[in-house]
Amino acid sequence: MIEIDNVGDVDPWFAAGSPTPASFLGIDLRSFTSRLIAAPLRDCAFLGCELEEQLSSAALKAGAFIVPERPGLPFRMFRPIYSVADIYSGFDPQVPGSWQTSFDHSAYSWFMDPATKAPRQIGLADRMAARTHDAAMERAIGRFLAAFPGRAVAFMGGHDRDRTDAGYRKVAALARELRRTGRMIITGGGPGFMEAANLGAFLAPYPDGELDSSLATLSAAPSYRQTHDWLRTACEVRTRLLGDWKAAERPESSNLGIPTWLYGHEPPNLFSSHIGKFFFNSLREDGLVTIADGGIVFAEGNAGTVQEIFQDVTQNYYRPAGLAPTPMVLFNSTPGFWNLPCDQVVDPARKKPVHQLLSQLAGERAASAFDSAVLLEEDPAKIVQFLTRTAPLRAGGEAEAGPTKGELWQAGFA
């Protein structure tokens, strides 16, 4: 079915003569009332659109499907992907505490109890509205990635890593180099190593020295727990490079953050040029490990990152014949982080014995090339070489083992 989310695309739909059914998403159709009433509306869908009552009645009678926006919500159910200006609408870097008046915090407070950090007991209608928002956001992310000519590489890693952590700079530099090869960089959109990867992608079109300049500014507020200063220093970097912290990024800086309001006490970072924020983390987590058709880099992290590693392992392990494995990189920015010996049950540096189990699972599927899609590495240059070899840009030819799960997912939104 044709999807129309821009008023400018309505006239071409009419021009088709006897147009095929279409889904209209989040647009004002009141000026088209008489023409739409005269059109074949059976099987059309009007999702979050502004409609005259006369058109609503005629559309329902003709067999169309209508889902209006639910009034009184702090968010739109049907909307395109967010920008930094959208998410941080109402925030002022010069006013401490203004994050609490931003759109992001308003949506968080609606969905979660900031005191307990647990979901509120919202009614079924509101829960359906939140799920509809997430379904629309999944579509927006899919269309964004489907329109991008290169492959997407996801970065996972600890949200609690400070900007002064040595690994933060390494992750940022690695993401910058991968973005310069034409990859789209995707993260969970939050603080820590997620912010580092988004920052690196954001800085891709700028001289190398901009990374150190940015880190010098950001290090004044190392932790996201210093919420206002953490946001303010990010705004300073954006203002220095863009002229206005709310301005659109350069195309070469494009990258994607996918945070969740379930962890809304962790503000989304300001270096994701495009932000697909979800209410329900289950959809967001599964999506993150599915959409990366160019591989996933697992920087150092804790339980959440380990969960993501084995979510990806499961998809690689049980993938159907003809589907290429997603390249997996365990990035030891601290030597030995992911390959701690298994007999060291407790490690004060929080290292994880992940590589041994991952190698065992990959070895069980060696005939399907899973084992060759796993890399344990400390050298960023070797990681770039590995990912560009195992998942070439689409323009340069497909991987020998066939399309990836991320490509198939994206194709559904092309």
Q: What is the percentage of strand-forming residues?
A: 5-15%
Summed up, the helix count is 15
- Shape, please? globular
Structural class: alpha/beta
Tell me, rounded to a whole number, the average pLDDT. Answer: 92
Rg on CA atoms, Å: 23 Å
What spatial order of strands do you see in the largest sheet?
10-9-8-7-11-12-13
Number of extended strands: 13
End-to-end distance? 12 Å
The run of helices and strands is: EHEHEHEHHEEHEHEHHHEEHEHEHEHH
Which spans of ≥5 residues are poorly predicted at pLDDT below 50? Answer: 395-400
- Main sheet: strands, sense, barrel: 7 strands, parallel
Helical fraction: 25-40%
What does this entry look like structurally?
This protein has helices at residues 10-15, 33-37, 53-62, 84-87, 103-111, 124-146, 166-180, 193-202, 209-218, 227-242, 281-291, 303-317, 354-364, 380-390, 405-411; strands spanning 2-4, 22-25, 45-47, 65-67, 112-113, 118-119, 152-156, 184-187, 256-257, 274-275, 296-298, 328-331, 374-377. The strands form 3 sheets. It has a 7-stranded parallel beta sheet with strand order 10-9-8-7-11-12-13, with helices on both faces. Strands 1-2-3-4 form a 4-stranded parallel beta sheet, covered by helices on one side. Strands 5-6 form a two-stranded antiparallel ribbon. With 414 residues, it is α/β, with parallel strands linked by helices. It is built from 15 helices and 13 strands.
